[in-house]
Design goal:
mainly alpha, ABC transporter involved in vitamin B12 uptake, BtuC, two-stranded antiparallel ribbon, 4 strands, globular
């Protein structure tokens, strides 16, 4: 809880610093403009969905590097099915969601039954799913054009609050996902099993927990939410290129989870922390875009530094906790 409070305070400080450097010192109103605030909320919600997914994997002590490629496969594959191949909308939705679930099951089985390392399995997935997408589409951009406007409302629509500001629909979707994830993780026996698995897999197995099933479940949740995120991302942008759609999205998701209190060693993590971490990552990206004094080409350097800081903080916190227990 203290770590979540710390990251929330940091979020507030970065928000105020961005407002100061972007608006107050320049006389502009770019940061606090309704358009920018709505876009910031929308991006936080979209990345928050995939961040929640990877949190389940990290809590078990695993990692998933294929998230961006799953986003690409689903995000490019869906318009390819409904527009290029003219597959009925309902059937196309079932296909892409089934593909997401199948990917998660495959990852889980390879890790639990063949005892492959999660890093290796998901790194291969990162390459495999993007390669499949590029092969299916022949590297062509896929999109909806002017069609499916009612469906696209799920990603780019908003609920009006005032004449100039509205709550993006993805915010409502991520709140539903986060609520369900939080209840599952903290209020069900299976959520406690996942946490126990991350703390000590061998002890969890000896206590009667079917650890293989729990690992598979974590990867299924991760891939399913990555697929849902891919759908919403392409519905938001209206088109996607298989070469770069979803690139580095796994980086943003993992960074958000780590910043939000998910230990890379497994065994700890909160959903609200992941959302705060996601908001911080997207706010930093927004700061880099809006503040003239910060060069935009260092974006990935900033994100990398943030992940490193989160990993160092996690290690320091572990050592402090261990020292207190020994005294």
């Amino acid at each position: 809880m203290k770590r979540i409070l710390g990251i929330f305070v940091l979020l507030v400080l970065v928000y105020l610093a961005t407002w100061l450097m972007s608006d107050l010192l320049t006389g502009r109103r770019s940061f606090l403009s309704p358009f920018n605030q709505e876009n910031l909320l929308r991006r936080t919600a979209l990345f928050g969905i995939i961040g929640i997914g990877v949190a389940f994997v990290i809590i078990t002590g695993g990692i998933d590097l294929s998230i961006g490629s799953v986003v690409c496969l689903i995000g490019v594959g869906f318009p390819w099915l409904v527009v290029t191949k003219e597959v009925p909308l309902g059937l196309a939705l079932c296909i892409v969601l089934a593909v997401s679930l199948t990917i998660g099951i495959s990852h889980g089985l390879l890790i639990t039954k063949l005892k492959l390392q999660p890093f290796v399995v998901t790194l291969c997935g990162l390459l495999l799913y993007r390669g499949i997408t590029r092969g299916l589409t022949n590297d062509q951009t896929e999109g909806f054009g002017g069609d499916f406007k009612s469906l696209r409302w799920l990603a780019n629509g908003e609920i009006p609050i005032t004449n100039s500001f509205g709550i993006p629909v993805p915010v409502l979707i991520v709140l539903v996902v986060a609520t369900a994830a939080g209840i599952f993780l903290n209020r069900t026996v299976y959520g406690r099993y996942l946490l126990a698995l991350g703390n000590n897999e061998e002890a969890a197995r000896f206590s009667g927990i079917r650890t293989d099933r729990m690992t598979i479940l974590a990867y299924v949740i991760c891939s399913f939410l990555a697929g849902l995120g891919g759908l919403l991302f392409v519905l938001d942008t209206n088109s996607a290129q298989p070469v770069d759609f979803g690139n580095f999205y796994e980086l943003f998701a993992i960074a958000a989870a780590v910043l939000g209190g998910c230990s890379l060693r497994g065994g700890s993590g909160t959903i609200i922390g992941v959302l705060i971490g996601t908001a911080l990552i997207q706010l930093l990206r927004n700061m880099i875009t809006l503040v003239d004094e910060i060069p935009q080409n260092i974006e990935f350097a900033v994100i990398g530094a943030v992940i490193l800081a989160g990993a160092i903080g996690d290690e320091v916190a572990k050592k402090i906790l261990l020292a207190r227990r020994q005294t």
